[in-house]
């Protein structure tokens, strides 16, 4: 969901949120789990891993010190990013009849401590990135990690708040969930370097996340409009956002297949099958959604579960292609 900011986010409005649903008591452990959204770990696992598997040339590459640290960096960056998002969205979550439980978690931890937790965790990821850069002799690893932090602040914090600025919403998502974790994982097992095929598949994976930024905005259209959050679905209509998402997937499929071909060989282009399947599935949904109202209703319904499975498939099939190549080359 694309929400407004909370007090304390750089440049955020200072007014307190309006009264919302009554808070319920939470243990500190439960509140921390909610803030980090650990339950989505399995969904994002292959987003964090695929770059390692396509770049590895030997199984031992996957459990090197650099690879283990890269997984730590990507994982903590992901969950810590949810902490910042929940912090910045606190005023709207407090008013929401659906997401009030997230505001409860922020209140249980405390607004200031929630923000401090985010920065502490990001400091850990930067420290780990420094270690990897020393191991690899390439400081671009730290630069990419810092780019991820900057994109998170631009996405969530005022006066930028890119999540409410039309196409900048999917652009920033593509950096945070596509480009940065993909490059960190790739660098870690490829001596801090990336070649032509790596760039091609990385751009394709970035387009997957760019597409998702349009697609995810559709189901939240009415709530975002009410809060003045100008996502692509609010500005241009839910069905147009769906069409944009599908259009972005087409070059993503081509680039992923081409990148795998260049990196691993022609047979490994099958790694694009997940993205191709997701494209076909979402194109079918686009045809079913005859207007904006139908688009919102469709993507808010039971189809979300199947759609989520296709989202995972786009990355795990890429990972599978890399795994097969590593095992056969061993």
TrEMBL record:
Membrane topology: Multi-pass membrane protein
Superkingdom of origin organism: Bacteria
Pfam family for this entry, one: UbiA
Region entry Disordered, spans: 1-20
Alphabetical list of InterPro entries matching this protein: UbiA_prenyltransferase, UbiA_sf, UBIAD1
Keyword Transmembrane recorded: yes
Gene3D superfamilies: UbiA prenyltransferase (1.10.357.140)
Keywords: Membrane, Menaquinone biosynthesis, Transferase, Transmembrane, Transmembrane helix
GO biological process, one term: vitamin K biosynthetic process
An example Gene Ontology CC term for this record: membrane
Segments traversing the membrane: 34-55, 62-84, 126-155, 167-187, 199-219, 240-261, 267-285
Pathway(s) the chain acts in: Quinol/quinone metabolism; menaquinone biosynthesis
UniProt-recorded name of the protein: 4-hydroxybenzoate polyprenyltransferase
């Amino acid at each position: 969901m694309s929400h407004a900011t909370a007090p304390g986010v750089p440049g955020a409005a200072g007014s307190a949120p309006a009264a919302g649903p009554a808070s319920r008591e939470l243990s500190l452990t439960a509140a921390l789990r909610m803030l980090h959204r650990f339950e989505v770990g399995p969904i994002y696992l292959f987003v964090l891993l695929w770059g390692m598997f396509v770049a590895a040339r030997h199984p031992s590459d996957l459990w090197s010190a650099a690879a283990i640290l890269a997984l730590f960096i990507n994982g903590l960056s992901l969950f810590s990013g949810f902490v910042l998002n929940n912090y910045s969205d606190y005023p709207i979550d407090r008013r929401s009849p659906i997401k009030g439980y997230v505001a409860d978690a922020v209140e249980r931890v405390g607004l200031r401590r929630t923000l401090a937790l985010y920065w502490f965790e990001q400091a850990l990821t930067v420290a780990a990135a420094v270690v990897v850069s020393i191991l690899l002799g390439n400081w671009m690893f730290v630069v990419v990690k810092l780019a991820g932090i900057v994109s998170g602040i631009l996405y969530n914090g005022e006066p930028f708040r890119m999540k409410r600025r039309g196409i900048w919403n999917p652009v920033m998502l593509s950096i945070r969930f596509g480009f940065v974790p993909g490059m960190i994982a790739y660098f870690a097992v490829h001596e801090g370097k990336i070649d032509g095929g790596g760039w091609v598949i990385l751009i394709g994976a970035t387009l997957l996340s760019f597409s998702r930024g349009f697609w995810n905005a559709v189901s939240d259209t009415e709530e975002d409009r009410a809060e003045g959050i100008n996502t692509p679905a609010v500005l241009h209509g839910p069905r147009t956002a769906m069409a944009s998402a599908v259009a972005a997937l087409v070059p993503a499929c081509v680039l992923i297949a081409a990148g795998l071909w260049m990196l691993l060989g022609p047979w490994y282009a099958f790694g694009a099958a997940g993205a191709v399947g997701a494209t076909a599935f979402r194109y079918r949904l686009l045809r079913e959604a005859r207007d904006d109202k139908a688009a919102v209703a469709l993507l808010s319904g039971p189809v979300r579960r199947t759609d989520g499975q296709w989202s995972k498939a786009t990355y795990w099939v890429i990972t599978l292609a890399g795994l097969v190549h590593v095992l056969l080359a061993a």
